[in-house]
Amino acid sequence: MSKYWSPLAASLVPYVPGEQPKNKKFIKLNTNENPYPPSPKALEAIREAANGDLRLYPDPTCDALIRKIADYYGVRPEQVFVGNGSDEVLAFSFAAFFNPAEPILFPDVTYSFYKVYAEFFGLKAELIPLNERFEVPFEQFERQNGGIVLPNPNAPTAILAPLDAFRGLLARNPDHVVLIDEAYIDFGGESAVKLVHEYPNALVVQTLSKSRSLAGMRVGFAVGSEELIEGLNRVKNSFNSYTLDRPALAAAIASFEDEAYFRQTVERVMLTREAVTDKLRQMGFHAADSGANFVFITHPKVAAKKLLDSLREQGILVRYFNQPRISNHLRVTIGTDEEMDAFIAALQTILAAEGC
Amino acid sequence: MSKYWSPLAASLVPYVPGEQPKNKKFIKLNTNENPYPPSPKALEAIREAANGDLRLYPDPTCDALIRKIADYYGVRPEQVFVGNGSDEVLAFSFAAFFNPAEPILFPDVTYSFYKVYAEFFGLKAELIPLNERFEVPFEQFERQNGGIVLPNPNAPTAILAPLDAFRGLLARNPDHVVLIDEAYIDFGGESAVKLVHEYPNALVVQTLSKSRSLAGMRVGFAVGSEELIEGLNRVKNSFNSYTLDRPALAAAIASFEDEAYFRQTVERVMLTREAVTDKLRQMGFHAADSGANFVFITHPKVAAKKLLDSLREQGILVRYFNQPRISNHLRVTIGTDEEMDAFIAALQTILAAEGC
């Protein structure tokens, strides 16, 4: 605590990102990164952007990337907003659409940054408990609110909800924004982007960090009605006019231009996910069907914290959340087949040592 | 206006950045970009960063860059914060150190984003008028305040204040942060970074966009006491954990490693600035001595708006602010000698047509 901190800064409980080890000795299954590199076209675009034009500011309106995303999803450019990772897009959204007078709703078990954003912008949050199977209880969101935030698939549960459930929610909340965080939607889910044509209150947020292997470039985006996108631009231009640098813009455009590579890597991750899920279940783990690039697992006999520590000793990082309801679960990113073989082998060693 | 906007979003008056033309036909003297490319080492670092590791998040703590900046300025790594351009660092600073209960002070004529940040974070701003020579009246800042924001050199006036004036201000405001925005300090000024050893309330903000020719990469930083840097990190980690992408981190590190190139380009800009200032004065313009990479000029007979429009017709962009006190001034970035020759020639044509 410092006398120089504002009351806001003093009150914050910041988000804690997953560990980014400084050396490479670990198998990293802890931050939901894609095990495959970005499209070679994206890498080439970054190299091409490394020229004297970097002395110039990037386009603050990000026109070229916005037009690319609009084309890709069949919406108008005025319906697309891009930001410095989906985290920034989410932060701007909390500022743009929610207000302190009414509670915003999100699940009790979900991306832990939502609560942090709510505190940062002085918003009341009402946490809606997931049901006992960790599914989103959509009917529980039918209550007075100032906005709803729902990831699909949810994290860290990995559970995908059907698009029709969102249709109902959007129709019953015509006066408030329903933010659908689709960070992981490309791994087999159906995007709600198509709903923005029907519902002016639907804001769909995605990232290039997961399915497009560009976590290191920080690009996220939102698709919604023009009035929502205008609201986001108002906030952005009151905070930071130039949020995406030139190589990031170039890489993102190139990624959307390489559909074949995108499809191929996403499918490989999904195939590995199915195989790993089967093996984990055979070993006694509970794992719900995953719609993401990670699985969320618990074992009836060995505590998650014990597994976490033992895996780390064997050079494998996974994510553990010391939170109510999920403190006996692990979130495990889907890596390459080789990485997952090593993960499964390590688990077998640990379980054997525990007498399972 | 949309019913989905928060009261905050509805109330904002966003910042308007200088024009970034989509084609290259213009001589761009409107956004204070460096006319010389970034260090070749920075470009090479970006190319090297364009590899498969981009699938991984960047280091959220930006350790390597922070250590490089700390070494460069002779401070501890705990005294350095980096962000996505100095605009983001400034925005985080307004959130971290100022509070709605007390007015923050900054000049009436200064970087127009300060007022926007104040509104965004619900802060009261008290504008202190520059004196009639557009100098910062330091004695006028000796009043009750919740923090002070002062650029040095000031923008768009280009006028540099002596470091001793900041010493006095820091000493007389021990309970509040004095933020010194040194976006342009490398063009001949003496940095206040050395003051952070004496004054725990000094926060010095700089950018790599101007003197290091990296506007296209979005890197800024702050140097201050450990408690101030911790405050910034609290805010950052409540907003966006990964603000700098991997190529930006690599480019910034490489830039600080190429001191010779940095010195050379800065000196070229300063030499051109002195020559241009002389020529402008010979043509009847008033131009205060500039400590930045731009000059701030006014002509006794031809209106600034007229000059702006006529220059644009001749393919030259400069910056005009339709604001009280400075609506008859132009801010003109220092380009290459060739660009400035074209600028001077265009002005001569315009003045001749006006009978001057």
UniProtKB/TrEMBL annotation, chains A, B:
Pathway: Amino-acid biosynthesis; L-histidine biosynthesis; L-histidine from 5-phospho-alpha-D-ribose 1-diphosphate: step 7/9
Main EC class the enzyme belongs to: transferase
Matching InterPro entries: Aminotrans_II_pyridoxalP_BS, Aminotransferase_I/II_large, HisP_aminotrans, HistidinolP_aminotransfase, PyrdxlP-dep_Trfase, PyrdxlP-dep_Trfase_major, PyrdxlP-dep_Trfase_small
Domain of life, per lineage: Bacteria
Xref: Pfam families: Aminotran_1_2 (PF00155)
Gene3D superfamilies linked: Aspartate Aminotransferase, domain 1, Type I PLP-dependent aspartate aminotransferase-like (Major domain)
The enzyme's E.C. designation: 2.6.1.9
Reactions catalysed, as given in the entry: L-histidinol phosphate + 2-oxoglutarate = 3-(imidazol-4-yl)-2-oxopropyl phosphate + L-glutamate
PROSITE patterns in UniProt: AA_TRANSFER_CLASS_2 (PS00599)
Residues recorded as bearing N6-(pyridoxal phosphate)lysine in the entry: K210
Cofactor: pyridoxal 5'-phosphate
Key words, A-Z: Amino-acid biosynthesis, Aminotransferase, Histidine biosynthesis, Pyridoxal phosphate, Transferase
A GO MF term: pyridoxal phosphate binding
A GO biological process held by the record: L-histidine biosynthetic process
Keyword Disulfide bond tagged: no
Aminotransferase class I/classII large domain mapped to chain residues: 25-347
PANTHER family referenced in this protein's UniProt entry, alphabetically: HISTIDINOL-PHOSPHATE AMINOTRANSFERASE, HISTIDINOL-PHOSPHATE AMINOTRANSFERASE 2
Family: Belongs to the class-II pyridoxal-phosphate-dependent aminotransferase family. Histidinol-phosphate aminotransferase subfamily.
Oligomer and partners: Homodimer.
Full protein name: Histidinol-phosphate aminotransferase
Species name: Paenibacillus protaetiae
